[in-house]
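Thread: "does anyone have the structure for this chain?"

Original post by V.I.:
We have the sequence but no experimental structure in hand. Need at least a predicted one for the grant figures.
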Amino acid sequence: MISTKKKIIFGLIAIGLISIIIYYHLNQNNEQKFFDFNINTNQANLEVLPIESIFTISGVKGEFILDEEARLKQYTRLFFQFYDKNQDLYNELMNNDDKTIVIYPIFTASAYNQPGFYNYYLEQCDDECLTVPIKLILRAEIGGNGAQILKLLNYKFLSDIDIDKNPNILKNFDKVILLHNEYVTQTEFDAITSHPNVIYLYPNALFAKIEVNYDQNTITLIRGHGYPDKKIDNGFDWKYDNTRPYEFDRECKNWEFYDINNGKMLNCFPDELIYKNSTLLKTLKDI
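Reply from O.Q.:
Generated one for you, tokens below.
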């Protein structure tokens, strides 16, 4: 017959094992799931482009036009890789901070698809173009060059959808980096603007308000970008909107980050700067 003392010991052991199992289970369920995007390329169709860069840049033949200054006029499909000779530089630029997160602009990528919002702005269609399917596409319009390079440099990503569904997730991170997150929900806007350290890497972020229908996998423009009244600019009436003039400065000759109430903003659109300026990438890492 088991003594009372042994029963107590066995009971404590059992409680300990159960506690370990529960703790492990909770940790498994609460493990942070990051957003990822893959770039599908047919290597046989790619050629290295002669562009000044600290990375190698490849493109699809016939889809890229260079002007007399050797700057790309069309650059929606550029692909970046490491140079072996620049490994020391990459080591210096590599992100090693688990408390930094980048927000991938799925909603903005969807808004730029056609037919879509921009067909409406051009008066090519009616309100039916203001509801579009959500599509994961890497586009130049969303800061696609920056997204690729930050992924190469070991930055972790969440998406608009992650923030909209769980706005408190941003509290897990000390630094939030936005790309060209032009179209966002009210929930996402509130989560981002209430975070104390946001780096607005691209001008024109948080510009227009949308709603999401997850059952139908669509977004709909609600306010902003001249809708529903042409006098409406920023859909949130956000006083820190830096669209004009900074969105239209693509050369970034005098780039700098300046302070706002919850972080820093870049004063130019860096999609052509980010692949050739290591100082920008180092500054972004160190902010």
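V.I.: this helps a lot. The first strand starts at residue 46 and ends at 48.
O.Q.: and The first helix runs from residue 4 to 30.
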